[in-house]
Amino acid sequence: MKIAHDLSIQDKCQDCQLRSKNFFCQLPTADLQHFESITVTKAYPRGTMLFVEGQSSDGVYMLCQGKVKLSTCSSEGKIIILEIADAGAVLGLSAAVNGIEYETTAEVLELCQVNYVKTADLLEFLQTNPEACLNAARQLSRNYQTAYRQICSLGLSDSVVGKLARLFLDWSRHGNAHSNGNGLGNGSVHLKNFFTHEEIAEMIGTSRETVTRALKYFRQNDLITLKGSDLIIHDQHRLRAAIGNRGGSSDM
Amino acid sequence: MLLPGGLPMPLQEKQADCYYCCPITVNELLRGLDAISRETLTSLEELRSIPPGVTVFAPGEQPINMYVHLMGKAVLTPQTGPQNTLNPCPAGPNRIYGLIEALSGNPFEASLQTVSACQFGKIDQAEFLSFIRCRPALCFKLAKILSRSYQQAVKLINSH
Fold first, then answer.
1. In terms of C-beta density within 10 A (0-12 exposed, 13-18 middle, 19 or more buried), how is residue A197 classed?
2. Which stretches of chain A are assigned E, i.e. beta strand?
3. Which end of chain B is more exposed for a tag (fewer CB within 10 A), N or C?
4. Domain-located, residue A252
5. Is A195 helix (H, G, I), strand (E, B) or coil?
6. Residues 35 through 94 of chain B touching chain A, CB cutoff 8 Å
7. Best B139, B144, B149, B156 residue to mutate vs chain A (most A CBs within 10 Å)
8. Is residue B107 a contact partner of residue A148, using CB atoms and an 8 Å limit?
9. What's the CA angle centered on B107, arms A109 and A231, to 5 degrees?
10. Do residues A41 and A68 lie in contact, with contact meaning Cβ atoms separated by under 8 Å?
């Protein structure tokens, strides 16, 4: 977890050493200068709510450093995590483009730096800058695909054991930035997990207690070792076989 | 997919399948486009007739081309992993496949297979991106369509 003195603020896009392949980081120099003129650089500590679901959209937050959790809440009060946004993501873009309320809640997971842009300024920038506009469409297409995958994941009739196995396999497959996967050979992989059981439950649409039971099942069957933030998947093939398995318990 | 009254349907496997059906139609793309741009876009299209039983694209493939479904019947089978496919959903004309993948840079996550003899307009992805790059109004329209689709997706997730 980053603390205050770990964050080196980069307030000039052109001189930034963190430029990612995403969104506006790769714009031509003149466009980048224009973009800088409409942004306000801010830093937020863990736990800050950048915006809340249902709140009127007033701007977008370009995430330069840190991680932000995007979640939504059902009418029954169930929280579902849509994704963990990394550096390069633009938060609140969808609401800004259509001029409606934010569809999700954005909560800072670790100390972050954002470039905030007011909606009116952003829309003017997009409409006069084709490259930026194309990048906005790219970002939104990725958001759509992420939401689609979440729909599929929630809609599948997998058991919780299966959904949890799928989540861990996704982390290992994508070399997930939140979970630094190091292959250990023989189908095993070492990940770093910074999520609580509650957060994992919110990712797969179940309760914290059920996740705890599922993790216990994985440990008892020697599928994983979980010690602190170290998650070791012993054999990805065996873990994959758990998908579709009810885990020996009717409530998982 | 909405119930009468606009409420999203409860999230079930079948709805999850059909949600992959591309939200962008040909009519939406062409609406409001000037005559010269329409002509340019049409010139990018290479017509292909495909017999039944052919896989047009498969999960994991990088989208080099986009496909405009002009005629015939096909089925779209979303896939969520090596062992998991969802129920096929019927795919009819007027849809554009590969556009979202072209924008996101991600591979296809479904397969499209022809059921009857079909006609598709094949468009090279790089040429299409060059086309829209020169037309910010069209880019912005795509952004708005994708935003609305994303918002509907979040509502569907909320109904879980």
1. middle
2. 39-44, 49-51, 59-73, 79-85, 90-91, 105-118, 182-185, 188-192, 224-227, 230-233
3. N
4. no
5. coil
6. 78, 80-84, 86
7. B139
8. no
9. 40
10. no
What ipTM does this complex have?
A: 0.82
Burial code of B38-74, b = ≥16 C-beta within 10 A, e = fewer?
Answer: eeebeeebeeeebeeeeebbebeeebebbbbbbebeb
Rounded Cα gap, residues A95 and B16, in angstroms:
23
Cα B114 to the center of its chain, rounded Å = 15
How many domains is chain A built from?
A: 2
CATH number assigned to the domain comprising residue A223: 1.10.10.10
Domain co-membership, A34 together with A145:
yes
Residue pLDDT, tens place only, B75-120: 888 776 555 556 666 676 788 888 888 888 888 888 889 999 999 9
Residue contacts between A and B (CB atoms, under 8 Å): 145
Q: Is the Cβ of A137 closer than 8 Å to some Cβ of chain B?
A: yes
Could you tell me which chain B residue has the CA closest to the CA of A134?
B139
- The token duo for A32 is 């980048």
Spatial separation of the C-alpha atoms in residues B3 and A7, rounded to whole Å: 48
Same domain, A89 and A150: yes
Can you tell me the distance from the alpha carbon of B34 to that of B37, in angstroms, rounded to the nearest whole number? 5
Record the pTM. 0.81
The residue to which tokens 């329409």 are assigned: B38
Chain B contact present for A100, CB below 8 A = yes
User: Can you give the pLDDT at residue A69?
Assistant: 95
The answer to whether residues B103 and A138 touch, using CB atoms and an 8 Å cutoff, is yes
Calpha distance B19→B152 (Å, rounded): 10
Interchain contact, A156 vs B84, CB within 8 Å? yes
B79 forms bridges with which residues in the sheet? Answer: B85
Count the Cβ atoms, other than its own, within 10 Å of residue B35.
7
Residue A12 shares a structural domain with residue A31: yes
Please check the confidence at residue A88 and state whether its pLDDT lies above 50. yes
CATH number of the domain to which B35 belongs: 2.60.120.10
Instruction: For residue B100, tell me if it sits in a domain.
Output: yes
Q: For A105, name the nearest residue in chain B, comparing CA atoms only.
A: B154
**Of A83, A144, A171, which to mutate for an interface test with B (greatest number of B Cβ within 10 Å)?**
A144
